[in-house]
């Protein structure tokens, strides 16, 4: 694109029709050939908008008025969740959210020239209050300690909130209890401007099956004044409490927790189950936040992988070993690779706690480890990958192609990089087996999870 003329002006209002909703959750209105991105805007809607940002490729705008609404729009009465960035699709009917996610995956595959069926998105029966973990900031507002969310546009302010809509309702209640205890002890709150004060965030994790609760007090300072009395009060007030941790995190406001934990009361970790496997969850463990759909996801990935008792299975990007451990009893051997050492230590603990004899996890960069396994002559039958949003590297995909597994199961949280990687793998002699299955791990948000299975054309 040379000499692009930007057809809109900053701060001005225009009118247009939403032609698409990208997988990032933003609606698109075209002004001539120039795309405008807006939140809370759904396909077919006629919208008056104000331009808030322009660059060469696209502009951003905010909705001024919805002149013609989509039949799929609902009035949730919870627009504060949009401002908080918690639930961008809260005003879109749930069946429309599921359809949208299916269409987005379909479009992204089409865009890389892959003609494949995308199954209807698997959703939740009750797509609210599903999260098993949350971290919230605390601040005094009019002399009262308040929990809520930080406004996206004015990061200094905190807006009080008691129902986060996507959290386990018990977690929301616990946040309130802990906040009031901290208030009663008149804790000081860290102020970014003066760099003084102690408390920063409250984090709560609660096991979906176990109902075990962990409360983490995230502080700017290595100790919290009255910490023992505070912990005693929390322990007495919170049902199911198993662990109270002080997380010392004196770093930038953008990192919520550090690796520096001290147990104030109870155990260092809690436990929960996923497909009947016990997982130990510490304050820093990466653990899927929607346990209900995660079980569906792993079960489906395993079914699509058509596991056999004689199979050697690789679990790449294994985190704390969730995929590998939940399939271990169906196969001969599981080899996992994960780059974060603490997660691998958790995975090894989970191997021992569940008496699993046939799974090993190593700390390494997945592409490098895959090359190493390949050079060592390993011939896996099934490879699972569950990479972060940036997807896979060509190095990893080359190793997969060289190892020529019977089945390659790709679990993805970003359908765009997934489609890119699918194109690469197909060009290397693989084909997609069956359809692509999207699954709604994060209802009310723009996140799309999908599973695809690939097999080599020549075995
Ligand atoms: N399968 C796990 C984790 C998936 S999240 C689960 O469902 O719980 C993706 C994981 O990839 C994270 O644990 C992250 O630490 C890991 N990761 C990121 N980059 C990596 C790399 N280069 N090599 C190996 N693992 C990596």
Automatic annotation (TrEMBL):
Protein name (Swiss-Prot/TrEMBL): 23S rRNA (Uracil-5-)-methyltransferase RumA
Record keywords: Methyltransferase, S-adenosyl-L-methionine, Transferase
Principal EC category: transferase
PANTHER family xref list: RNA M5U METHYLTRANSFERASE, TRNA (URACIL(54)-C(5))-METHYLTRANSFERASE
Gene Ontology molecular-function annotations: rRNA (uridine-C5-)-methyltransferase activity
Binding site for S-adenosyl-L-methionine: 288, 317, 338, 386
Catalytic residues (UniProt): 413
Native source species: Weissella cibaria
Any matching Pfam family: tRNA_U5-meth_tr
Alphabetical list of InterPro entries matching this protein: MeTrfase_TrmA_AS, MeTrfase_TrmA_CS, NA-bd_OB-fold, SAM-dependent_MTases_sf, U5_MeTrfase_fam
Record family assignment: Belongs to the class I-like SAM-binding methyltransferase superfamily. RNA M5U methyltransferase family.
PROSITE patterns: SAM_MT_RNA_M5U (PS51687), TRMA_1 (PS01230), TRMA_2 (PS01231)
Gene Ontology biological-process annotations: rRNA base methylation
Transmembrane segments: none
Enzyme Commission number, as recorded: 2.1.1.189
